[in-house]
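Summary of Year 1 activities. Much of the first year was spent building the evaluation harness for sequence design. The harness presents a backbone, in tokenized form, and records the residue chosen at every position. We chose the following record to illustrate the format because it has been used consistently in internal testing since the harness was completed.
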């Protein structure tokens, strides 16, 4: 029962932080270290990635009509634009897919550490503030996903690749990169949601394959529970973010990242001194 409660907490953390640009993986690592569920390290490593499937389903549900190129309610032109959007998503997904397949084990071994999470939280927190200050008063050049060019897509894809380092935040990295090249906040956030679908499905199935699908009944139940909870909270987080950025910028998330990163550095140093 206690482990089920811990899984629910982790699902809540995933659902909220996956779509806000504050690093879901970083938060899951940190909260997992605090909760210490009675599960193997291999299972928790897989759990922290596969739980994202619940979050992804929230995007599919909320944006089903926009994502569906076969919708009978769409005109032929709208269907064509939907297919073009999916092609853009796949192009931007290439850098992360290649690096993920080649260096997944290396990234897990080297970067999944609290201090790395802290540094990346701070670095991208500063970037959010700098970019928003630079863009203040400017009219975005790109106000529709259809206006994203191939160089823009590869630029965003490169930043998504960098987000494989925990603490960076996949949504944070892609939103920052989009803002840097003149994309509006709304388009940056929506494209980030859509970009997550192939990348996170791919990452989840890669982790499942490496884990070997050898679940105990309890582990499978915990995984499903985490996915369901993350799905519900993701619905709330996505709607909150899209409403929030209609009247506000992303700087508040930058400040949050810096404060959290600094706190992690302090706690980590204190633990090292008194270990």
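For this record, the design step produced the sequence shown next.
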């Amino acid at each position: 029962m206690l482990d089920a409660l811990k899984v629910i907490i982790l699902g809540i953390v995933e659902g909220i932080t996956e779509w806000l640009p504050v690093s879901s993986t970083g938060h899951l690592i940190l909260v997992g270290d605090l909760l210490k569920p009675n599960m193997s390290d291999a299972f928790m490593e897989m759990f922290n990635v596969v739980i994202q499937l619940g979050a992804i389903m929230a995007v599919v549900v909320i944006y089903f009509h926009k994502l569906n190129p076969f919708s009978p309610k769409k005109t032929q032109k709208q269907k064509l634009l939907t297919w073009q959007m999916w092609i853009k998503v796949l192009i931007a997904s290439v850098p992360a897919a290649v690096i993920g397949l080649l260096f997944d084990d290396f990234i897990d071994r080297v970067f999944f550490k609290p201090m790395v999470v802290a540094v990346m939280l701070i670095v991208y927190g500063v970037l959010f503030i700098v970019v928003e200050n630079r863009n203040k008063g400017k009219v975005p050049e790109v106000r529709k996903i259809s206006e994203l060019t191939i160089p823009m897509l590869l630029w965003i894809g490169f930043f998504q690749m960098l987000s494989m380092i925990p603490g960076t935040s996949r949504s944070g990295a892609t939103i920052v990169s989009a803002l840097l090249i003149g994309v509006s906040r709304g388009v940056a956030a929506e494209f980030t949601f859509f970009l997550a679908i192939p990348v996170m499905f791919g990452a989840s199935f890669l982790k499942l394959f490496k884990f070997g699908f050898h679940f105990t009944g309890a582990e499978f139940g915990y995984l499903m529970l985490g996915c369901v909870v993350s799905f519900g909270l993701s619905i709330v987080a996505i709607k909150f973010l899209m409403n929030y950025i209609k009247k506000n910028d992303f700087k508040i998330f930058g400040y949050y990242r810096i404060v959290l990163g600094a706190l992690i550095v302090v706690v980590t140093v204190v633990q090292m001194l008194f270990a």
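The radius of gyration is 19 Å. Quantitative recovery figures across the full test set are reported in Table 2.
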